[in-house]
């Protein structure tokens, strides 16, 4: 009996890890152009700002897909749905790797964006169904750690691959990772019972709740600010701060390693110290981005590296912290609350990329960092108005499936 329980526990945590890899794959696919702006733009004859709009369009389509899927796909069994979605994402990246024009690349990305939004909306509550309630925070940290890892590590890795062998090779690698992840999901993720689709009343009840409204407002501000700056991090470092290619990718990898460290720290403290963790992370991000914007190249490679470490640790904690907060506050309403959160998160990614392009056109690449720091400070206001969250509660199968 004990051996069976240990085997079941091992399989549950393997499934959680695979879902974390899945979230890494889908968000790396979404954000890969950030590390490839210069090479894609040069190859297709487009400006970096226009290529950055690929991120905006992708994110907004994914946001709409997340909400629609919560209302329309509630009765679809989760495991085969996740496998199918990951295969669609693999196809999207494979087609993107073969495109030769900007419209064709955008079209391939649209296909992936739809699958992306549905996938993310579905995995938001799976951790709470797979592991015991006392481990929900850790499971969420692992699953959504893939999101932060993609942002802070997947993007620089895609950029390095693009620098060494071209941006199409980077998309081909993402396609391969997505295909392998689909196979891993088919092997490891248990069958999770589906539930009734989310109705409009359930969504309306969530958006009338002041606690969720404050979390969503803080999320919108923080994610918009992060991606306004992060979408253009490659040209900021290479053109505005005059970093040579070797130093640039070393700094991006430093940012990535810091993000992984931030994810580990978040997993250790998120269940007990959620509000101070999120507040501190937002403050560190604001200071780091403000420092890059104000000091620029005068900070030197070492100074920029330190600021990127603070940024990477902070954003990892913010990614996991807000999703965990949603699940803790929602209880049995986890699916509609998470679907709205995913939609807002992706909409904010698109808004951030667009804001960055506008700010660049009006000021400079370095000016984006300062503007982002101000928006991050604004995100602390709704967080301060939130009550301290209670202990983690697992959503019921009916509500969260």
Automatic annotation (TrEMBL):
Where is it located?
Answer: Cell membrane
Tell me which domain of life the UniProt entry assigns to the organism this sequence originates from: Bacteria
Q: Which PROSITE patterns match?
A: MFS
What do the Gene Ontology cellular component annotations say? plasma membrane
Membrane among the record's keywords? yes
The cross-references to CDD domains, in alphabetical order and at most eight, read: MFS_NepI_like
Species for this entry: Pseudochelatococcus contaminans
Protein name, please? Putative MFS family arabinose efflux permease
Annotated ranges, domain Major facilitator superfamily (MFS) profile = 15-390
The main place the protein resides is membrane
Instruction: Cite the InterPro entries for this sequence.
Output: MFS (IPR011701), MFS_dom (IPR020846), MFS_Efflux_Transporters (IPR050189), MFS_trans_sf (IPR036259)
Q: How does it sit in the membrane?
A: Multi-pass membrane protein
GO MF terms on file? transmembrane transporter activity
Q: Name one Pfam family in it.
A: MFS_1
Q: Which UniProt keywords apply?
A: Cell membrane, Membrane, Transmembrane, Transmembrane helix
Where is the chain membrane-spanning?
A: 12-32, 52-74, 81-100, 106-126, 138-161, 167-190, 211-233, 248-270, 277-297, 303-327, 339-360, 366-386
């Amino acid at each position: 009996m004990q051996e069976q329980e240990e085997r079941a526990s091992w399989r549950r945590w393997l499934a959680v890890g695979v879902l974390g890899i899945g979230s890494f794959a889908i968000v790396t696919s979404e954000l890969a152009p950030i590390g490839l702006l210069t090479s894609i733009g040069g190859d297709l004859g487009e400006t970096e700002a226009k290529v950055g709009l690929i991120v905006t369009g992708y994110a907004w389509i994914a946001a709409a897909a997340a909400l629609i899927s919560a209302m329309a796909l509630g009765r679809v069994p989760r495991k085969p749905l996740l496998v199918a979605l990951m295969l669609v994402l693999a196809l999207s990246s494979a087609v993107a790797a073969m495109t030769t024009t900007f419209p064709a690349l955008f079209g391939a990305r649209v296909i992936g964006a739809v699958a992306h939004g549905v996938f993310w909306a579905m995995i938001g509550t799976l951790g709470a169904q797979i592991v015991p309630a006392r481990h929900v925070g850790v499971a969420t940290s692992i699953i959504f750690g893939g999101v932060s890892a993609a942002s802070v590590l997947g993007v620089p890795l895609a950029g390095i691959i693009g620098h060494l062998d071209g941006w199409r090779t980077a998309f081909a690698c993402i396609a391969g990772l997505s295909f392998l992840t689909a196979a891993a999901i088919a092997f490891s993720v248990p069958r999770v019972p589906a539930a009734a689709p989310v109705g409009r009343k359930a969504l309306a009840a969530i958006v009338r709740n002041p606690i969720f409204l404050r979390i969503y407002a803080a999320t919108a501000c923080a994610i918009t600010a992060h991606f306004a700056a992060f979408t253009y991090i490659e040209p900021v470092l290479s053109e505005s701060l005059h970093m040579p290619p070797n130093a640039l990718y070393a700094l991006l990898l430093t940012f990535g390693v810091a993000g992984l460290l931030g994810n580990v720290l978040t997993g250790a403290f998120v269940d007990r110290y959620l509000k101070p963790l999120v507040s501190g992370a937002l403050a560190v991000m604001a200071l780091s981005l403000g420092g890059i914007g104000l000091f620029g190249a005068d900070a030197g490679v070492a100074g920029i590296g330190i600021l990127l470490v603070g940024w990477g640790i902070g954003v990892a904690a913010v990614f996991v912290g807000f999703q965990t907060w949603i699940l803790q506050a929602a209880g049995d309403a986890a699916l509609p609350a998470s679907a709205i959160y995913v939609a807002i998160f992706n909409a904010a990614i698109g808004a951030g990329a667009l804001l960055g392009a506008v700010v660049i056109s009006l000021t400079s690449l370095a000016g984006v960092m300062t503007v982002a720091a101000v928006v991050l400070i604004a995100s602390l206001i709704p967080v301060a108005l939130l009550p301290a969250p209670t202990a983690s509660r697992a959503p019921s199968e009916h509500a969260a499936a």
